């Protein structure tokens, strides 16, 4: 079993769309990440009808990693709904803009993380490929806010 299969199976176990209440749904998008030290963490989306409290599976997985271990660097990530990422489905497995931004802000090293874009082909893309010309690079390079 390769690391991508491990990540897929861990995330897949969390996929069970649930109505938490008449206003909140959860578990319809799932994510697994491999931290810098090799530990695996999972997350699932949770969304309310107001939109304010929505959390994507990717951010929940990253927060679980940080809360549990204090780590901020992610090596690999897979996210999906009812099927693994597939390049034939536009946007399949790709984090939203808010998640991309959060992952870059969490650690500049996350720009090198591999994001699964086609599970069967084991095709990946890096976060830096999804965010060329990211606005925060100079802050990391100089250590300054402006």
Explain what the structure shows:
The structure is a single chain. This protein has helices at 3-12, 57-69, 97-106, 127-130, 137-142, and strands spanning 18-19, 24-35, 40-48, 74-80, 114-118, 123-126. It has 146 residues and is of the alpha+beta class. The longest helix is centred in the middle third of the chain and has 13 residues, at 57-69. Strands 1, 2, 3, 4, 5 and 6 form a six-stranded mixed sheet that branches. The mean pLDDT is 95. The radius of gyration is 15 Å and the shape is globular. The protein contains five helices and six strands, in the order αβββαβαββαα.
Task: Offer a quick outline of the entry.
With about 150 residues, the chain is an alpha+beta fold. The chain is built from five helices and six strands, in the order αβββαβαββαα.
Keywords:
six-stranded mixed β-sheet; 29% helix; globular; 6 strands; alpha+beta; 146 residues; 27% strand; 5 helices
> Which range does the strand content fall in?
25-35%
Number of strand elements: 6
Q: Based on Cα principal axes, name the global outline.
A: globular
User: Averaging pLDDT over every residue, what do you get?
Assistant: 95
Radius of gyration, in angstroms, nearest whole number: 15 Å
SSE series = HEEEHEHEEHH
Instruction: Characterize the biggest β-sheet.
Output: 6 strands, mixed
Residues in helices, as a percent range: 25-40%
Number of helices: 5
Kindly name the structural category.
alpha+beta
Unreliable segments of 5+ consecutive residues = none
Tell me the distance between the termini. Answer: 46 Å
């Amino acid at each position: 079993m390769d690391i991508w299969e491990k990540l897929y199976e861990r995330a897949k176990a969390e996929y069970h769309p649930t109505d938490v209440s008449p206003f909140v749904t959860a578990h319809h998008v799932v994510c697994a990440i491999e931290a810098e030290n090799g530990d695996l963490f999972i997350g699932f989306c949770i969304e309310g009808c107001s939109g304010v409290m929505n959390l994507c599976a990717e951010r929940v997985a990253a927060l679980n990693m940080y809360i549990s271990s204090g780590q901020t660097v992610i090596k690999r990530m897979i996210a999906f709904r009812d099927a693994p990422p597939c390049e034939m489905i536009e946007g399949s497995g790709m984090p939203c803009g808010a998640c991309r931004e959060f992952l870059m802000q969490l650690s500049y090293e996350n720009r090198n993380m591999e994001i699964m874009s086609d599970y069967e082909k084991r095709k990946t893309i890096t976060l830096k490929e999804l965010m060329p010309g990211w606005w925060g690079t100079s802050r990391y390079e100089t250590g300054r806010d402006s």
